Amino acid sequence: MANAITIVRMVLLFVVLWFMYGKNPSVVQWTGPALIAVILLDALDGWVARRRHETSQFGSIFDIVGDRVVEVACWIVFSDLGLIPVWVPLLVVVRAFVVDGLRSSSYSDGMTPFGEHNMMRSKLSAWLTAGRPMRALFGFAKAAAFLFLAIEAAYVLPGGPDAVIARVYGWAPVYWIGWVLVWLAVALTVIRALPVVVDAVAYLREKDKTAQAKS
């Protein structure tokens, strides 16, 4: 069931992104809340997996695949629409390859990306990468950033979004808070990756030493 929710989430994502390329601002503005729904489905599939005792290494990895698809696709589309510089999706893509590639080195040892049995070596690393407060902050920042950018996509179209949304969005504090959240999401993308790189290198070195000692 949890994996089915992940599949539905990815299908819904591409439907939403297709609507984002429309020319009707009243339609485009609603892609923001729709992206929020896509992100919330991530929390739902995790809850379902725990509730139905369906947690597994495959499910954990497949959930990350879903997260990466949502994250990378959104940043690419926002860049393609001219809302953010191209280096942002490039950074996100490189980060995904590096982090997931390093993490995969531990899967053969039965480890999972999150949970108790992972390759994180310190409490700080575990908190930054898998701690609920940090994951919640990252999820909130991304959701708020994607909502803000989706409304920006409607705002730049002829006619702009509906009057109420335009009035709220046009208020300077809301506008600047929106951009702060966009760059916070980008910053957290890097910050949460660094402990994985550091701990993965140490893990692989220890693994090599163990293999050499046995040989």
Concise account of the structure shown:
With 215 residues, the protein is mainly α.
What does it look like?
The longest helix has 24 residues. The chain is built from ten helices and no strands. The protein starts with a helix and ends with a helix. The chain has a single domain, classed as Four Helix Bundle (Hemerythrin (Met), subunit A). It is mainly alpha-helical. α1 runs antiparallel to α3 and α6 packs parallel to α7.
| Structural domain count | 1
CATH architectural grouping: Up-down Bundle
Helix fraction, binned, reads over 70%
**Regions with little confidence, pLDDT below 50 for 5+ residues:** none
Question: Cα-atom Rg, whole angstroms?
Answer: 19 Å
The major beta sheet can be summarized as: none
Distance between the termini: 44 Å
Number of helices: 10
Got a strand count?
Answer: 0
Approximate strand percentage: under 5%
CATH-assigned fold name: Four Helix Bundle (Hemerythrin (Met), subunit A)
Layout of secondary structure:
Elements: H1 2-20, H2 25-28, H3 31-51, H4 57-80, H5 87-104, H6 123-130, H7 132-155, H8 163-169, H9 172-191, H10 194-214
